[in-house]
Amino acid sequence: MVAPAQFLDYVDANSTKFIDRLAEAVAIPSISGDAQRREDVFAMARWLRAELDKFGVTTDAIPLGTQHIEGQVLALPPAIVGRIGEDAEKKTVLVYGHFDVQPANVSDGWNTDPFKLVLDKDTGKMFGRGSTDDKGPIMGWLNVLEAHHKLGLPLPVNMRFCFEGMEESGSEGLDDFIASEAKKGADGWFGGVDCVCISDNYWLNDRTPALTYGLRGLTYFNIVISGPGADLHSGIFGGAVFEPMTALVALLGKLVTQDGHILIPGVYDGIKAADDEELRIYNSLDYSVADLEAAAGGHIAVSDDKATVIMARMRNPSLSIHGIEGAFSGVGAKTVIPATVGGKFSLRLVPPQQPDDIRAKVEKYLTEEFAKLNTKSSMKIEYLHGGIPWVADHKHWNYQAAKNATEAVYLKSPDFTREGGSIPVTLTFAENLGVNVLLLPMGRGDDGAHSTNEKLDVSNYLQGTKLLGSYLYEVAEITGTKA
């Protein structure tokens, strides 16, 4: 079902208003990980709820508890939930997004104030923290609601909303809320939901729209090696004592090879090789080894084969070493033997890997390898956090509706992708509600989410608004429900 022309025309005619709406949202520095900005996250929640209320959405702000941060006990930002439409003959679509953002300062390398949306009229790029992650997509949904409200058009589906303010800080409190609402059935905020749509990811590149049906999970570790009671002088103690750094480097070197093969026994157990159909998906993607190397800033891909590189990026598990704490760094030549050092690394997981199983295998392997070092230093393995991988049925009508909408708006078929990162709430919705979850991105692969000079192209913002609205009409069409 093609979206009504008056809806599409409304988006074009109100582009300035929609950009101003995004500017208002970006101007609220809703940094969830900064205790000093917690009130700004609450202010963003109030702002968003007020916008939803304008367009006939029944809303509530759900308290999610408290957290300990920077030595304080702070209230968690509320989940903003909403509903509009109760027609039993229509499908019900649940929309998720997050209104918190990563920290940002001009001193980090921003060319402009990160909390002032700046439009470069020559390039059509809008710079500002949260512009693409994830305030732009949320504003897209508000734009869809406004258009239908102002035009007097009935929405083609019933809609439910769940917006949170802690996604960038682990989504604390949200999983429990979703689970409790799911148990309420028809009486809960998510009662009767037929599918979920999340816009919190990006195209593979800056050319071709994408639909994402898989995300990798995560396990994150810190190996802490301790020896002497204090840092020592290498000229006095070097060669006479067991050094923690030497042990740590040895252990980190036993985790993964240069080409990315993980050395932990059993870590690949149960992972099936890609079949011909899956390989065709990867080979058909508008993405190349050159694209990856351009994004990475160097000729460093692990292979020259397109499918191999794409699978390494999004389909296969990986292990990355992130850093060493407690050691000397900086200018000069300090001849210190660190007393305690920590090495942080993580694994990205794919089905059927589970965080608890991988954790056990990692800890067993490190314990055995540490014993082989015959050092008098001690080791402690800290498990920092984990997340379960997710893969959806990309042949489901939810994805077909999104594909049809993409083709209608962008006049080209989308890439079907999996992503290497993690969005834990995706699996939370899938498991608790038992419905198909779709990742429908608005932004491009070069938007720089979490980075300096984060941006969203005006064209993606406006066309993305049309895409979100068109998707709702395609859901109604493909499922044969009344529009």
TrEMBL record:
Keywords for the protein's UniProt record, in alphabetical order: Hydrolase, Metal-binding, Protease
A Pfam short name: Peptidase_M20
PROSITE patterns: ARGE_DAPE_CPG2_2
Peptidase M20 dimerisation domain: residues covered: 213-371
SUPFAM superfamilies membership: Zn-dependent exopeptidases
InterPro entries: ArgE/DapE_CS (IPR001261), Cyt/Met_Dipeptidase (IPR051458), Peptidase_M20 (IPR002933), Peptidase_M20_dimer (IPR011650)
A GO molecular function held by the record: metal ion binding
Alphabetical GO biological process terms: proteolysis
Coiled-coil stretches: none
PANTHER family per the UniProt record, alphabetical: BETA-ALA-HIS DIPEPTIDASE (PTHR43270), CARNOSINE DIPEPTIDASE 2, ISOFORM A (PTHR43270:SF4)
Similarity-based family: Belongs to the peptidase M20A family.
Protein name as annotated: Peptidase M20 dimerisation domain-containing protein
Highest classification ranks of the organism: Eukaryota, Fungi, Dikarya, Basidiomycota, Agaricomycotina
